[in-house]
Amino acid sequence: QVQLVESGGGLVQAGGSLRLSCAASGLTFSKIAMGWFRQAPGKEREFVAAVNWSGGRSYYTDSVKGRFTISRENAENTVYLQMDSLKPEDTAVYYCAADGNYYRDVSRDRRNYVYWGQGTQVTVSS
Question: pLDDT tens-digit profile of 99-116?
Answer without folding.
Answer: 999 998 898 999 999 999
